[in-house]
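Sequence in, structure out. Go.
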Amino acid sequence: MNILITSAARKVTLVQAFQKALKDEGLEGFVVAADMSPNSPALKFATVGILLPPTEHEDEYKSALLSACGTHSIDLVIPTRDEELPFCARHKHEFLKLGIWIAVPDEACVSLCQDKIAFADFCEANSIEIPKRIHDITRLPVFIRAQYGWGGGMARRVDSIAEWAILKRKWGDCLVQENIDAPEYTVDIFSDSRANVLSVIPRQRIKVVAGESVVGRTEKNADIIRECQRLAGMLRLQFHSIIQCFYDNGVVKFIEVNPRYGGASNLSFQAGGESPRWLVKMVAGQQVTAPPIGDFIDDLTMLRYSQDTF
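Output:
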């Protein structure tokens, strides 16, 4: 089985996780890492490193991706960048007819998850807790998120009306919510191709740099596990996703859902959520048996650091 990880960038641990999955399952094959930049570190750790054009040029990207899949006999594509998820969701059934799995949910799910305002509407309509929405700012601070934005660059606390006016002009439509001072969690979710949830592993975001957790710790929080399983089922998430939430005085308040691997998902792999291995087994047509939901290594802390390669 050959696997292609797109937008690989600095995701060395994800490349290594899928290499380990192939080895653990005794499957012949290799991992191809792709990115727009030849200076992406992950390209140097995969068996093959290739360049792909930006997804913004859809016809060119589709042609290049199909060519890469044919050249390297790819069975499974792992998209990792938010901007490429809509393309992958639109075309995943077309690729599947060629025997190529793309690990992304259906288009409607991706669209809902990426629209912050639509996601908030969905949660409110289904009695899912989110930070309180603010339609008329009378008290500060508040927290705002661009309707369409990724990473930490288009989400921030606002302390003045002047700052809010500047960001609104810059970002356009935004979701405005209460500013919450409570522990924040990223939850790794793995579901099968029929959207059955198999694994839920919360990890507290202890230290965050540029929107990515660099110090995290797993936590067997029954409230978070239960509510994330419920939300994942309602959204019909498939394969690996990450859910972000606050745990505010015993209430789980959801922020967003990203239907892809997270930069710090390696913590959940090490804690027992072996989703790369489960995904490989699924594509190979084998039965996937995960531990009972909530059965993982508790209080496991990950300290992330940079490493040089020459």
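Check: The chain has a mean pLDDT of 95. The longest helix spans residues 58-71.
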